[in-house]
Amino acid sequence: VFLDNHDNPRMLSKFGAGREADPAVRTAIGKMLATIQLTMRGTPFLFQGQELAAINQHFSGVAELRDVESINRHKALIESGMTEADAWAQVLAGSRDHSRVPMRWTTQGGFSEATPWLMGTDDAAGFSAEEQMADPDSVFHWHKQLIMLRRRHRALTIGSLEWVHPHHKFYFAYKRKLGDEVFLIECNTSAKQRPRPKFSGKAVPVMGGPRRELMEPWEATVSRVVG
C-alpha cells in the first residue's frame, strides 16, 4: 500500500489542491492519509517525507528541475505550440522532482553545507524533521502512534476488510476484523464538514476522537467496536 514514491508528486498536494499552504490543513490531510495507509489491508510502504507531511515544491521554472522526463515534456509541449505558462503548469503538476528533493532535517535544511543537486523550496515553519519530532501533535507522531497501534492489534494487519457506507461520497470508511477484535476507520476526504453516517454499533475512538455528528474537513478517526 503506497501513496508516495520517487516517481510521483506528493499525494498530500493532490488532496490539498493548493489548500495545503495552510499548516492546519496540511497537518489534517497528512494525518488522514497516514490513517488510511497504516490501517488498510496490505503492507504499507512509507516514502521519505510522508511522516513530515511533505508537499509539492514551488519550482519557479524548468531550469530548477533535474527530472529528465519533465524537462523533455516541457520541450515537447513548447514545440507543439503551447504557451510557456500552460506548458509549465502541466509539467509542474506531474514532475517527479517534487518527491526527490533532499529531506528537510532542520529549519535550515540540514542536508549538507554544500549546494544540493536538487534544491527544495518548502520552508514552511513546523514541517522539518526537527520540528515535527519536537511537536507531540505532529504528523510524525501520528505516524508513530498508528504504527504502534498496528503492531499491537493483528486485526489491523491480517484482519478482514469490510467497507462501511461505500456509497457516501467523501466518507471513506471500513472495518478491520479478526476474531472478536473489530476496528472502525472513518475519514472525511473533503475540505468541508460532512455529516457522519450512522453506525450500527458502539464505536469507541482510540485515535482522532471524539466521534461527533459532523466530521471536520480531512478528519480521520480510528475506533474500537465494542459490544
Automatic annotation (TrEMBL):
InterPro entries: GH, GH13_cat_dom
Record-annotated Glycosyl hydrolase family 13 catalytic domain positions: 2-158
Pfam families associated with the record: Alpha-amylase (PF00128)
The protein, known as: Glycosyl hydrolase family 13 catalytic domain-containing protein
Source species taxonomy: Bacteria, Bacillati, Actinomycetota, Actinomycetes, Propionibacteriales
GO molecular function, one term: alpha-amylase activity
GO biological process: oligosaccharide catabolic process
